[in-house]
Amino acid sequence: MAAVPPKLPPLDGSLGVIQIGLVLGTFLFGIETLQTFNYYREFPKDPKILKGLVGGIWFFELAHTISSWHAMYTITVTFYGQPQHILAPPISLVYPIFFHGLIAFCAQSFFVYRVRVLSGQWLIPIGCFALNLARLGCLMLLFGELYQTPIFTLLATKFRKEVIVVSSMGPGVEIVVAASLVYYLWSRRGGKGGSTGFQQTNRVVDSIVIWTVETTLITTVSGVVQLILFLTRRNDSSWILFFLIQAKLFSNSLLASLNGRTRFRTPGASVVAYDSAGHSNSTGRSAPGAFVAANPSDVVIRMHQMSDTVYSDDMLRSKV
């Protein structure tokens, strides 16, 4: 009589969530690739350091995707029917932690830099950058430990505190950056009931505020959900789903923010410059691409031209 093979435990909370995370992550990587192509096509005059940042993040995402799928193939095909390899996966499933840390650091540092340009101050940007750097350090520490002992159950036991700290820092930085950008943009507009004195410019500033919230909301929510699942669901690994896609959300958020500058492009738009003291000065009409800020800390907003706002090519060229 043939021996009955042992019954495998339910894999929905382990292998299932990893598979769903990889499928969603690959879909988001496709969107990111399209956004990267559009960025290089639409903004060939951006600073080299900014174009290098976009290209570097895309290569990190490619490596993140390849290593994740290599691990999935090894678990489901090479080690088929051997559930012990799910909790002790191949080393390739540890590399996404490394690439996730680099991607999150680069993307969040870019948004922190925007706060620095817009506010003209150092306190909040330095604090956010320090948290961002500490998060990167914690992720590299986890990567090093799991590289030596690739057992994912250690994340919920031995390194539980470290995972909680890392998962808290991400949303924390996102919230501070988004709130700072909205606050400084709103103050430049004139605050509640205030106005720049130009109706079209007011609309541009309002659109930038909405766009800022939109591009940071999804990354913040995913980070909070990941933390909640990690704290409340100790019997499965459902939180890994959000960890696997969060790097893709960071990079797509950055690219959406950069590519969103095309929304307000119109030739010969009127220009309003805001200096670091908050004073405005109408400079009339100007050709696209002209630099109109006399002081490097000035904030330039062209009505209907996102490329010359605080997110502008000109501001980036003057700062980088």
UniProtKB/TrEMBL annotation:
InterPro entries: DUF6534. The keyword Membrane applies. Pfam families: DUF6534 (PF20152). The chain crosses the membrane at residues 20-40, 52-73, 93-115, 122-143, 163-186, 207-231, 237-255. The keyword Membrane applies. Residues 174-262 form the DUF6534 domain. Keywords: Membrane, Transmembrane, Transmembrane helix. This is Saposin B-type domain-containing protein. It comes from Mycena venus. The lineage of its organism: Eukaryota, Fungi, Dikarya, Basidiomycota, Agaricomycotina.
